[in-house]
Write a structure and sequence with these properties.
With 270 residues, the protein is α+β, with helices and mostly antiparallel strands. The chain is 40% helix and 26% strand. The protein has two domains: 119 residues, no CATH class; 139 residues, Trna Endonuclease, Chain: A, domain 1 (3-Layer(aba) Sandwich). It is built from nine helices and ten strands.
């Protein structure tokens, strides 16, 4: 059996308004951890700046194009992972952010793995991205309706991540409650149009969970609720599901909400 290679992927995101937090993926950085340190496997960029221009018609494409050259010519020579990421953060303006790491083990040729991940995140059609918020909203509406019918909605609260990350973190889990030594969290994740939110949740959750357990003195348990009927033959869907499961996130779809609500009723003594 071929030895598995340890790859790490980072998405480069254009974020014109930090308050809104809306972004477009425009680049992918692939690193490999080997015996000689961290090396740059490849950098890929979106071939269509139209996705960026759709989000921000005033974007200066010259800046982003210059950034591409800087990454390829300068950053690619570094071997130290921490120095590499610091160099990138120092070079980028606030409008460009680096995603959390997405680790992967592969027996394939590294460039083939980069091709697959780049295709997932850099070539999503613009029309699909505009539908993603509606997909998440539909899941949220279903969750609220089922929780309300079960009589537990008023006992469930949104759980902000800020106390367990950094000041100003806007992310929050949709629902949460404490029972005994556990904090049960539930979050709507739409995957039909884009798996970005699922991958980001998987990347961030382990660190949040560790700090939450230390601060709150209770073990968090997160369930991500996704659409029913997802196409599990799609590489993007399988990749995101595996990432969530490896991060300790239970995945359920909307058809399982009745059982989830009934468990909440029992946990809350109703």
């Amino acid at each position: 059996m071929a030895e598995k290679r340890k790859l790490e992927f980072f998405l480069l995101r254009y974020v014109p308004d930090a308050v809104k937090g809306e972004f477009v993926n425009f680049g992918l950085l692939a690193l490999e951890n080997g015996s000689e340190g961290t090396s740059l496997v490849d950098v890929r960029f979106s071939k269509d700046w139209g996705r960026v221009q759709c989000l921000d018609p005033q974007v200066d494409l010259n800046v982003l194009e210059a950034l591409q050259k800087e990454i390829r010519l300068e950053i690619g020579m570094m071997r130290d992972r921490a120095a590499l990421l610091r160099r990138m953060e120092d070079s980028f303006s606030g409008a460009v952010q680096i995603s959390a790491v997405m680790p992967a083990l592969t027996e394939r040729i590294a460039l083939a793995e980069v091709d697959d991940v780049a295709r997932m995140f850099l070539e999503t059609a613009k029309t699909r991205r505009t539908r993603e918020p509606a997909g998440r909203q539909k899941i949220l509406d279903t969750m609220r309706t089922v929780f309300e019918d079960a009589g537990v909605l008023q006992l469930l609260k949104a759980v902000p991540a800020e106390p367990y990350t950094k000041a100003g973190d806007p992310f929050e889990f949709d629902f949460g409650y404490r029972v005994g030594g556990q904090i049960k969290l539930l979050h709507a994740v739409s995957m039909r149009a884009s798996v970005d939110s699922a991958v980001m949740l998987a990347a961030r959750y382990p660190k949040i969970a560790t700090v939450m357990e230390q601060v709150a003195g209770a073990s968090p348990m997160l369930t991500a609720v996704v659409e029913a009927g997802l196409d599990h033959t799609r590489d993007q869907v399988r990749f995101a599901l595996e990432m969530m499961e490896e991060s300790g996130i239970r995945v359920a779809d909307t058809t399982e909400m009745s059982g989830i609500a009934e468990t909440a009723r029992r946990d809350l003594g109703l």
